[in-house]
Amino acid sequence: MSAWQVSADQLQLDISGVSDDIAGNVRAFLSIAAFENQAVTSESRLRYLHRRAQQEIQEALEPFGYYNPDIETKLQQLDDGNWQAIYTIAPGPRVTLSRVNIQILGYGESDTAFQDIVASTSLVVGSSLNHQAYSRLKNRLQSTAAERGYYGARFERSRIYVNREDNTAEIDLIYATGLRTRIGEIRFSENPISENLLRRYPRFDEGDYIDVTRLIDLQSALIDSNYFADVEVLPQLSELEEGEVPIQVSLTARPRTLYRAGLGYGTDTGARLQLGMDRRYVNSRGHRMSTNLRLSEIRNDITGSYLIPGSDPRFDQYGIRGRYSDESSDTIDSQTYAIGGIWQKQVGAWERVLTLDLEHEEFTFDNDKRSIFMLIPRARFSKVVADDLFNTRKGHNLGFGVAATSESLLSDVSLLQLTVNGKRVDPLGDNWRLLSRFEVGATYTDSFDKLPASMRFYAGGDNSVRGYDYQKLGPVNENGRVIGGQYLMVGSVEADYMFRPDWRLAAFVDAGNAFDNFSEPVKTSAGVGVRWQSPVGPIRLDLAKPIEDSGFRIHFTLGPDL
After folding, report:
1. Residue boundaries of the structural domains of the chain
2. Would the pTM of this model clear 0.85, i.e. be above it?
3. What long-range pairs does 125-129 form, CB within 8 A, spacing at least 24?
């Protein structure tokens, strides 16, 4: 067969003697690899690429520190007409570093960020030469310089010298950082929020050194403020002068008003309708206003709030709020009017909410209508830790609260109420999860008969003991009607399995009750369910069976696992 004759014979490529990652790099360097499993149309071209293979293999080994390999190459045509290229590689010993000179010059010499990079490199005398580690070191130095404002940084020397005869290498790397730039004027573009409020968001001041992570932090905080649809925080490098650079904060405001509407259904509440309006900024000082109407078959609520940013507007706000609630179920018949003040603040990982409300509640048990007036200070602490709030694989939340009233302070009843609740999600392998939750509450009062219905404890329902109707568990009066208890204990353990993307099967056991004393029985239920990870969060459908009682109940809920 002549060299130019077209053939349907194919090339097989065989590389041996090295690890898979090195073999992959060899394959990437080999020009002949482009013809692997392809029809050989030119024998002369094939032999030419085969002659180049030894040099290409040597170049492919050098990044791994192998400079003196033994390479055997063979190209043959098999009996079936196919071609086979065989490359047997003995990489030999890796080049070792006999001298390593890494220097940081300029202001960066005393910067711990650069010191840590140099201290952590694997390129030390006696170690093997690794070009990838060398490239990573250079990239880290350059990215750190850019992040920390060393805009004039450059390599004065960047060299690897390899002595093939004695299989050693020397590294010379000298990085001159120059001057570290400071923050000049902080400029905010025209927007509806006052500069006095905006200047409380940065975690840096004019004159501080540039740190890109702080600029990104400011950008995230301003987006999270809900005032702005788009935020850019950029150093104006074209205006760099005398070691200072101005920071331009470009802001695009969101529409001032957001209207909300939604329909829903839950087995506890029945059909639901929600309407709301948020005023993202009432004025240039960033005050907010929100109103919400929620109607359901069991409970209707009208709420409103007016909030003012605090000294740290990221995590601190205070204001006033009002609420009207009308609940009418088989257990509760009550109407509540409330107005008061609220102060929300982030304290470390915890969100702290302090409130002081004047409440008037009218409630009825068996045609016995009562009216209670209370001044209630409350404190609530909560935190959520999760890898993903909407599709959680691992995480937990924890909350505890305290409320109190006193007959000597504008209240018709004296009480102290404590609550603790938590949830947890733990992965069990790739497709299994374990979900657990608990809720505990206690009310201390000498006049329980005066306690309004909304402050008594009940169990049963979608997020309590499944298998029982909403708030159908608790102490009962002489007519057998549930009137709520002083104590609450509820717990649940659930395992679910993802049998296909976004779909899970679950099995669970719930237990608990509301009590006046702990001699009363605990109710237990068990069941199975299916979950769908929708774009707005998990949707759950459960079938639960009480252990101690007859019947079963279907539960339908929507919302995050935590």
Report:
1. 11-90, 96-176, 182-253, 257-558
2. no
3. 125/97, 125/98, 125/99, 125/100, 126/96, 126/97, 127/96, 127/97, 128/65, 128/94, 128/95, 128/96, 128/97, 129/65, 129/94, 129/95, 129/96, 129/97, 129/160, 129/162, 129/169
